[in-house]
Design brief:
2 domains
């Protein structure tokens, strides 16, 4: 119990010292102001913000799952593969079983497709968790391998083709807007973000996850079943991937094995930019949300510059990721130096 209290106090003190959220908000204001000034006529339009609200939820929900695994001290690179595999199976079910169904039965078929998706997410997440917790395979290698497995299965099932012909009721439901202005995908992201925040901050699992990411051996000695926590973490990541898959399938009106191929890099970038420590033990949903807003603003703003080709997008995201990692390293070194100086002064005063 003393060890758990020490972990909790350590995390709390580090959380209080962390100013990453304020820095993120400042960056968001700067980025937003830049595009608002340079592309005022095109950027400051209701249509632009509506487009942003529709585009950001799918990879943002995937990023929430990646964030959970990063906090545990691991990573999940297979989220896009899980989402595409589940999307293909759900699309096949809807395109074959529900196309000729009576209107009253369509909601049942949609619920059945969603159940298939969540079963896939549960199974894939559990498989990842088993590899990481039971067989002790490094998470980056385990999920890189399963990413190829899940993507390969999707390609084998579809022979590389897209699966279309979804029931119109599903497409209409996913792409609709509450009150005429609040997109359903955005509501789904808000619900997922709220759930992840609750799990991290208000449950025993969340406290154990932070402790596990801080020091796995110490967490185990304090009585935490680390394998159980890891299994839950990768299962949660798989289930969040299915929520994103539902949005991707509805927005594209189809499912394909290579949908969202750039999302893996974006998810990692969102987590790192949002303050999730790559070595584990720290991360906040609020930081992830602001990071999502920053990246979506940059993405939308870049689209307004016709001279910037879309082929440069991966180059830009990679450069931003490296720059953020370097900046975080410098900031963390400065904070550690200040902390050590403060501790040495306190020890000198006590002496």
């Amino acid at each position: 119990m003393k060890t758990q209290a020490a972990f909790s106090n350590r995390f709390q003190s580090f959380s209080e010292r962390n100013s990453n959220l304020l820095r993120l908000l400042a960056v968001f204001v700067i980025v937003f102001a830049f595009f608002a000034i340079t592309k005022q006529g095109a950027f400051l339009k209701p249509e632009t913000f509506a487009s942003m609200a529709v585009q950001l939820p799918e990879y943002s929900i995937l990023a929430l799952g990646v964030a959970l695994t990063l906090i545990s001290g691991g990573i999940d690179l297979s989220v896009v593969g899980i989402a595409n595999l589940a999307g293909i199976l759900m699309a096949l079910f809807l395109s074959t079983a529900a196309t000729d169904a009576a209107p009253d039965a369509v909601p049942l078929y949609i619920a059945g497709a969603a159940a298939i998706g969540f079963l896939v997410g549960l199974s894939c997440g559990a498989f990842n968790g088993l590899l990481v917790s039971r067989f002790r395979i490094p998470p980056i290698l385990a999920t890189m391998g399963t990413m190829q497995i899940f993507t390969g299965l999707a390609i084998v099932i579809t022979e590389g083709k897209s699966v279309s012909g979804l029931v119109p009721a599903y497409e209409h439901g996913i792409n609709s807007a509450l009150f005429g202005w609040l997109p359903v995908p955005l509501l789904m992201f808000i619900a997922c973000a709220a759930w992840v925040s609750f799990v991290l901050n208000k449950t025993n699992y969340g406290q154990k996850l932070y402790m596990l990411g801080t020091n796995e051996k110490a967490a185990a000695f304090s009585g935490i079943h680390t394998n159980t926590v890891l299994m839950k973490t990768y299962i949660y990541s798989g289930l969040l991937a299915i929520v994103a898959s539902l949005i991707m399938m509805g927005r594209n009106a189809s499912a394909k094995a290579d949908t969202g191929s750039s999302y893996t890099l974006q998810c990692v970038l969102i987590c790192v930019l949002g303050g999730v420590k790559t070595e584990g033990g720290f991360g906040k949903v609020s930081g992830i949300v602001v990071a999502v807003l920053i990246l979506q603003t940059i993405s939308t703003g870049l689209n307004l510059f016709r001279e910037i080709n879309n082929f440069y997008r991966g180059l830009i995201w990679g450069a931003v990721l490296v720059a953020v990692l370097i900046a975080n390293c410098i900031i963390e070194q400065k904070e550690q130096a200040k902390l050590m100086k403060k501790l040495s002064m306190e020890e000198a005063a006590e002496a």
